[in-house]
Every structure is written in C-alpha cells, then in structure tokens.
Amino acid sequence: MRILPPMSTLRAFEATARTGSVTRAAEELCRTHGAVSRQLRQLQDHAGVELFERDGTGVRLNDHGHAFYDVVRAVFEQLEQGYGRVLDQARGPTLHVACSATFAMRWLVPELADFYRVRPDIRIRLSMTSAREMRTEGADVVIAWDLSSYPAADQQRAMPLAPVLFGPVCTPDHAKRIANGVRITHDFTSSAWDQWEAKTGKRIAPNGGLTFPHTHLCIQAALAGLGVALVEQRLIRGELDSGALVAPYGFTAFDGGLRAVPAERQACAGMHADIAAFVGWLRERLG
User: Fold this and answer.
1) Confidence band, pLDDT 50/70/90 cuts, at residue 93
2) Are 42 and 6 in contact (CB under 8 A)?
3) pLDDT tens across 206-242, in order?
4) What is the Cα gyration radius of the chain?
5) Over pLDDT 70: what percentage of the chain?
6) What is the CATH classification number for the domain harbouring 216?
7) CB-CB contact of 228 with 204 (8 Å)
C-alpha cells in the first residue's frame, strides 16, 4: 500500500509552487481559487507540516516546501516525458529534432513537405531553442552550425550537413552608409561577426550596436532599417530575391558548416535508421 496524498493535491501544489501564485495555479488548472486553496490545505494536513508561508498577498515555499517541490517537480517531469513517449509510440515512429527557431521557421518547416513525401512513415517533432540552449538532452538529433559551446564528445559525434555562408544584410538605403552603419548582433553567437571580419578583412560599426536573442529578430531589425545583420544566406533568400534586403559584401563560408549532432544514446546504439534517413535528406535538400 502506497502512502501518498491525493493526486489532485499534488497538482495544485506543483502549479502553485511553480507559478508562485494560487490565482495563477487556479487559472492553469481551470479551478477556482478556493478549490486550489482547499487542496493545498488538504496536502499540508496530510503531511502534517506547512509547505508555504505568506508573502504579501501571495504565498511562497518554506524550507519543507522547497524540499518537497524538488521531488514533485522531478516526478512530474518524468511522468510527462514517459507519457509523451507512450503517445509517440502509439502515433508511430517519431524523430525529435532540436534546432534554432529561425532555422525551423525559415528553412526546415517549409521543406518538411518534401521529407514527408519521401518518408511518410516518420513524424518529426521539433524543439525550437536558442543557440545557447540547444543540447541533445531529450532530442534525437540537434542541428546547429556553432558547436563551440558543446562538449567535446558532442563535437566528435557531429555529422557534416552543408557549408554555411554568412553575409551582412541591410536595406538598400542602409547599404549606402554600411561601413558606418549600426551593427545588429545575435546575443549568443556574437563571435560570428569576429569570424566574418577575420575572413574578409572588413569591419562594420565595430563600436557597438543592437543585440537580439534570435536571428529572426535580427532579420526583422534589418528589414526595419535599424542596421546591418549578419545572417546565413538560406535564412533570407526570400528577402534577397524581393530586394527588401541586400548583401553588399556577398556571403562568406564559415568554419565547420551546418552539422547534425545525434544524441549520445543513439550513437552508442549505432546510427538509428530514422536518423540516418533524416540526415541524408537534409544533406540532399541543403545542397
């Protein structure tokens, strides 16, 4: 016999601890404030200890609450992941792919129709994260060009997909003053400008500018005429073709290129057939 409180009280506790608010927890759980408060009281009565303390008009975890939340959060995450795996198995073969949000939106998703035409038996599940956050935990394969912050083992497993070519892009009007223009930088791959300058011998607004956490925001800033963004050519093909953006210095190949990093569990078990099929398709479509 398991000695556990009712599951509804644990859901109320987890949501309240995570959001820091009974009101927000009630909204998330589609319950009333009073109902969640009663569930929290029921849990604390069952445990025989207080888990929260007053914090102004809200509540916060006390030491007992923090210790219990660490356990509950881990169990809920394991339960969510396990449930997701069951659903994936029921729906058929699924390949979990992690990549940057900009690459997913501007290249991968528009191209997926071709992959499904070739391999209708494999379903792609995407995780779109920033370059700083991309790791292989939970994903079967990660697509990235800058692996400088990745562990050495990940870099060794990386499989080449295609060269990457970066170039400064801006509006036609901004191009007239590009040498002294405003530099637009990606928060987490700011070294891209250093690599471009080292390879071309050119410099653009070296004394600061605008920074954004995602490449698509850098592109939007360039489209708005705010400055010069350094972007991989595949991600702005539409804007270049339409003339909304221009690349006065063309595009320069960067070291490493775009690569696919399979999860360690996949590498240890041998290359999974679905990953091999997806990587092969990527290489063909990327040219």
Assistant:
1) low
2) yes
3) 666 898 988 999 999 999 999 999 999 999 999 999 9
4) 24
5) 91
6) 3.40.190.10
7) yes
* 224 Cβ neighbours under 8 A, 6+ residues apart: none
Q: What is the pLDDT of residue 134?
A: 52
pLDDT at 271 > cutoff 60: no
Range of the domain at 226: 164-254
Shared domain check, 265 and 140: yes
Whole-model pTM? 0.65
For 230, the token pair is: 């350094």
Three-state SS for 1-15 is CCCCCCHHHHHHHHH
Q: Can you list the pairs that 152-160 forms with residues at least 24 positions away whose Cβ atoms lie under 8 Å?
A: 153/264, 154/261, 154/264, 155/261, 157/261, 157/262, 157/264, 157/267, 158/259, 158/260, 158/261, 159/259, 159/260, 159/261, 159/262, 159/279, 160/257, 160/258, 160/259
> Both 69 and 110 in a single domain?
no
Strands 94-100 and 123-129: parallel
136 has pLDDT over 50: no
Query: 16-51, pLDDT tens digit by residue?
Result: 999 888 998 989 999 999 999 999 999 999 999 999
